[in-house]
Write a structure and sequence with these properties.
- By secondary structure, this protein is mainly α.
- It is 59% helix and 0% strand.
- The chain folds into two domains: 125 residues, no CATH class; 35 residues, no CATH class.
- The longest helix has 31 residues.
- Belongs to the MIX23 family.
- InterPro entries: MIX23, MIX23_fungal.
- This is Caffeine-induced death protein-like protein Cid2.
């Protein structure tokens, strides 16, 4: 069985290092959610009966369903020990970095440069008859704004990945129609006690 994602050390520097942040999310999603079918297949026990050579005589277009469904306790164990803990780690990272993105950033190394550029743009003489592009000024965005945009995108990706994982889990485990976010929230509430 796969292991849940490990919790990275959460610091503002981790969030502002978008390469490290994206790599963490990509690896965590790849080991659990993107390979959900393989993870669930690993829970299946080998056949109780021996190999039957006559089974290879004809091509079977439809796979028998009895080998694809998992026992409820196997599914519950996978959700409790691997899936939900990984989701919790990623949720913690996304929440923390979203908080960093909405907080003031006194350590922004480019803030002085942006302030100088803003002053120069205000002092500049604009004559659009001579140069129609002279009025254009595109201020560099702060790293908190860039991080906030990344967090919005990553939350949307996370939502899609969780829906897909939950649907595969539902097909293989015959679970109820409870939405993924409700099941995760219930699990999270039991972990906080």
């Amino acid at each position: 069985m796969s292991k849940p994602s490990t919790h990275p050390r959460l610091t503002p520097q981790f969030c502002f290092n978008q390469t490290a942040l994206r790599d963490f999310l990509r690896i965590s999603r790849g080991t659990i959610d993107d390979s959900i079918t393989q993870n669930l297949n690993a829970l299946l026990t080998p056949a109780h009966q021996g190999f039957d050579p006559s089974s290879t005589r004809t091509r079977q277009l439809v796979t028998p369903d009895h080998g694809r469904s998992l026992q409820p306790e196997q599914c519950a164990g996978f959700k409790e020990k691997v899936l939900f803990p990984s989701w919790a780690v990623r949720s913690d990272v996304l929440d923390y970095c979203a908080d960093v993105a909405t907080s003031p950033d006194p350590d922004d190394p480019d803030s002085v440069i942006r302030q100088i550029e803003d002053v120069k743009a205000r002092e500049r003489t604009v004559d659009e008859r001579l140069d129609p592009y002279s009025g254009r000024y595109f201020p560099q965005e702060a790293r908190t704004e860039s991080l906030a945009m990344l967090m919005r995108n990553e939350r949307a990706v996370e939502k899609i990945i969780r829906m897909r994982t939950w649907s595969v889990l539902g097909e293989r485990c015959g679970m109820s129609s409870e939405p993924a976010d409700q099941a995760f929230d219930k699990w999270r509430a039991t972990q906080r006690r």
